[in-house]
Amino acid sequence: MSRSGRPADDGGGGPTLSGRGLTYRHPRAERPALLEVSVEVSPGRLLAVAGPNGAGKTTLIRTLAGLLHPESGEVRLGGVGLGGLGDRDRARMLAVVPQSEASPFPVRVEEMVEMGRYPHLRPWERAGRGDRAAVEGAMRRCHVWELAGRELGGLSGGEAQRVRIARALAQEAPVILLDEPTAGLDLRYAMELFRLLAELRGDGLALLVVTHDLNLAARFADRILLLDRGVAKAQGRPTEVLSEATLEPVYEWPLRVTRHLGPGVDAGAPQVVPLRRDDP
């Protein structure tokens, strides 16, 4: 820990977020939503978490963010137990992009993104020039600057998702967790989002993205964690995780794994093709 009491860098330009042996059971649930799952989100790396519905992906994000408390295991940020950090210090280091959220009152897009600046402001302090620049830069990077004056409730699902990502970027946290950020996005914006994540990784951020799109994960992520019923079935490079022998028992569906033909740096990345039941 640094002298300020905040997590120190782990030597890679930013803090590492790690979970060790995480087990969590929802109230009255028969089985754990997570069972002894270990994961590490490192600076300059993009980790994709995949798995079928009910695999525990959202529970993992909420546990890593400190919103759920595991019955066993520990979450550490920059070498410090997450429970030892105050809310404001945690928010300076860790941003979360949820699948969806509701606002009890009308809010404009720019106001929503400005909320990402709260960890950097003292109580009742107004946003300054640097805060406004961070907000505008985040909105332009996520292609929502032209929506600044619109109310969030009037946006499409994909537009609202990009606004939430812009808020996380305005927060300027070195670790970002994204829960299915491409939900509601068409092909273009899904590709642009993963390209943006690749850029942020290049900037040294530590990124975890929950996704159902195995093919985008294979092309952009450094590592993939495959969950099934709360258990880590595989974790490693895309070429190590995305195989027919590993995926078919998890998804309970026949499939083939081919290779992305390129061109580009992701040429040769594994690509998953679901088969019809009657395909040979």
Describe this structure in words.
- By secondary structure, the protein is an alpha/beta fold.
- It is built from 9 helices and 12 strands.
- A hairpin with a 2-residue loop joins strand 9 and strand 10 (231-236).
- Helix 4 packs across helix 5 (157-171).
- The longest helix has 16 residues, at 187-202.
- The model is unreliable at 1-6 (pLDDT under 50).
Supply database-style keywords.
280 residues; alpha/beta; Rossmann fold; 6-stranded mixed β-sheet; 4-stranded antiparallel β-sheet; 12 strands; 24% strand; disordered N terminus
What's the topology here?
Blueprint: E1 17-24, E2 34-41, E3 45-50, H1 57-64, E4 72-77, E5 80-81, H2 87-93, E6 94-97, H3 109-114, H4 129-141, H5 157-171, E7 175-179, H6 187-202, E8 206-210, H7 214-220, E9 223-228, E10 231-236, H8 238-241, H9 244-251, E11 255-259, E12 270-274
Parallel strand pairs: 3-8, 3-9, 6-7, 7-8
Antiparallel strand pairs: 1-2, 1-4, 4-5, 9-10, 11-12
- What count of domains describes the coordinates? 1
Per CATH, the class reads: Alpha Beta
Class computed from helices, strands and strand pairing: alpha/beta
| β-strand number | 12
Pick out the low-confidence regions: 1-6
Shape: globular
